[in-house]
């Protein structure tokens, strides 16, 4: 019964998001989960701390577009960090983040007490972990994601444009509050790009992080899309102009729709959380009926999150 309820809410949500005028770029670039899990004895504390950080993240995002939260003590401390790309409007930032927050549950912080996860969207970013990673610039999980169809025109010109662009972005961003957008080339050989370092990755750490993205992105052309997803920064190029160079865009009649989207997203998040929390805190009962309930939960998670 509550399963149908969640699905209905989600359908409403996707419908609303599709018809909204804004572009929160709530498209997934990558989800990375650690394979470390909390010890059995610590799970209850870990889950409570995780929930507390997720609760605290949203109000900070609403005020300053990034959030850094620490909750818990000792081995069960949970660190969470989130930030929007700086070209998003405040409304788009809130929408992107609300969706990002529901999707990070795919790392299974409740079922498996997974101790860390990162979710890169093209408009926002959320990570939680069991150590202070707030100013970390590089990590072993750093990766590039290339996509789209191959570029159809002159490939050597395209590659040259892409590399010139990312080099320029990586030099400009550290001196420009950790952010830059731009394009190189003409006509259908134009390449557009965006680079951003996270809030606490500034100065030389931002330099270092973006220099690494320039190395990694080289494998992407002639693909039409390239992204590098590092611990401390994000870089993307595309044949489409995906960024906005106008942050002061007013919500043209989208405010009501936005309020509804946020309300529905929060409701979905709350419902999902309460299902998982109940499931978690009555774990002993579940274990006895494992084949029934846990399989049911996994089916639910799949149906919610694989869209
Ligand atoms: C975690 O994943 C890494 C890489 O995928 C692997 O090398 C390591 O053995 C895994 N650790 C555990 C405890 O499963
Ligand atoms: C962790 O979250 C709980 C619940 O919101 C709160 O009472 C507590 O003060 C937080 N602890 C820290 C260290 O922020
Ligand atoms: C924290 O975890 C480590 C290993 O995982 C363990 O050796 C240590 O005793 C733990 N510390 C506390 C305070 O639980
Ligand atoms: C990163 O933060 C830690 C703890 O807050 C601090 O000790 C360290 O010096 C910082 N590193 C850099 C490179 O800023
Ligand atoms: C794009 O560039 C290629 C090669 O320069 C050219 O053949 C093609 O006509 C161009 N397409 C458009 C839509 O301009
Ligand atoms: C691509 O452009 C370069 C420079 O304009 C030119 O030298 C080269 O012949 C072109 N290659 C193709 C396949 O058109
Ligand atoms: C980056 O490109 C812009 C626009 O083409 C140019 O004005 C600027 O000098 C370049 N900066 C660097 C560091 O290359
Ligand atoms: C920003 O937008 C204006 C107007 O559309 C455009 O002329 C300009 O080239 C854009 N700048 C960048 C860096 O994309
Ligand atoms: C980086 O930013 C933080 C806060 O945003 C600030 O406290 C710190 O001094 C900055 N570090 C550098 C090297 O600019
Ligand atoms: C930038 O914003 C101004 C006013 O807010 C608007 O008139 C203009 O069309 C916008 N440009 C772009 C490229 O969105």
Provide the descriptors you would attach to this structure in a database record.
single chain; 307 residues; alpha+beta; Killer Toxin P4, Chain A; 2 domains; five-stranded antiparallel sheet; 8 helices; 44% helix; globular; transmembrane; GNK2_sf; CR_Ser/Thr_kinase; ATP-binding; repeat
Structure explained in plain terms:
The protein is an alpha+beta fold and 307 residues long. The protein folds into two domains: 3-134 and 250-305, Killer Toxin P4, Chain A; 143-238, Killer Toxin P4, Chain A (2-Layer Sandwich), CATH 3.30.430. It has helices at 2-19, 43-64, 90-103, 155-172, 204-217, 255-281, 283-288, 290-305; strands spanning 28-33, 66-71, 78-84, 117-121, 124-129, 143-150, 179-184, 191-197, 223-229, 233-238. A five-stranded antiparallel sheet has the order 1-4-5-3-2, with helices on one face. Strands 6-9-10-8-7 form a five-stranded antiparallel sheet. The two termini are 21 Å apart. 39% of the residues are buried. The model is unreliable at 248-254 (pLDDT under 50). The structure holds 2-acetamido-2-deoxy-beta-D-glucopyranose (10 copies). Residues 74-75 line the site of one 2-acetamido-2-deoxy-beta-D-glucopyranose.
């Amino acid at each position: 019964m509550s399963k149908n309820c969640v699905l209905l809410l989600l359908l409403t949500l996707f419908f609303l998001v599709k018809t909204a005028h804004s572009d929160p770029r709530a498209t997934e670039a990558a989800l990375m989960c650690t394979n470390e899990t909390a010890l059995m004895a610590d799970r209850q504390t870990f889950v409570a701390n995780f929930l507390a950080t997720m609760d605290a993240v949203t109000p900070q995002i609403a005020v300053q577009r990034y959030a850094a939260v620490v909750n818990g003590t000792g081995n069960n401390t949970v660190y969470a960090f989130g930030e929007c790309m700086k070209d998003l409007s405040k409304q788009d930032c809130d929408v992107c983040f609300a969706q990002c927050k529901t999707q990070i549950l795919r790392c299974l912080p409740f079922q498996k007490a997974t101790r860390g996860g990162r979710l890169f969207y093209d408009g926002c970013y959320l990570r939680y972990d069991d150590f202070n990673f707030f100013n970390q610039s590089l990590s072993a999980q750093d990766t590039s994601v290339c996509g789209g169809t191959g570029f159809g025109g002159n490939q050597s010109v395209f590659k040259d444009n892409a590399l010139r662009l990312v080099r320029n972005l990586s030099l400009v961003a550290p001196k420009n509050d950790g952010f830059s957008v731009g394009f190189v080339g003409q006509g259908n050989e134009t390449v557009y790009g965006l680079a951003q370092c996270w809030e606490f990755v500034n100065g030389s750490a931002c330099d270092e992080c973006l220099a690494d993205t320039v190395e990694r992105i080289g494998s992407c052309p002639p693909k039409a899309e390239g992204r590098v997803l590092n611990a401390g920064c994000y870089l993307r190029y595309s044949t489409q102009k995906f960024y906005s160079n106008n942050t002061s865009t007013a919500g043209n009649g989208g405010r009501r729709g936005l309020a509804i989207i946020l309300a529905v997203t929060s409701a979905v998040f709350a419902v999902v959380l309460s299902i998982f929390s109940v499931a978690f805190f009555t774990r002993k009962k579940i274990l006895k009926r494992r084949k029934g309930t846990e399989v049911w939960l996994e089916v639910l998670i799949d149906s919610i999150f694989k869209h």
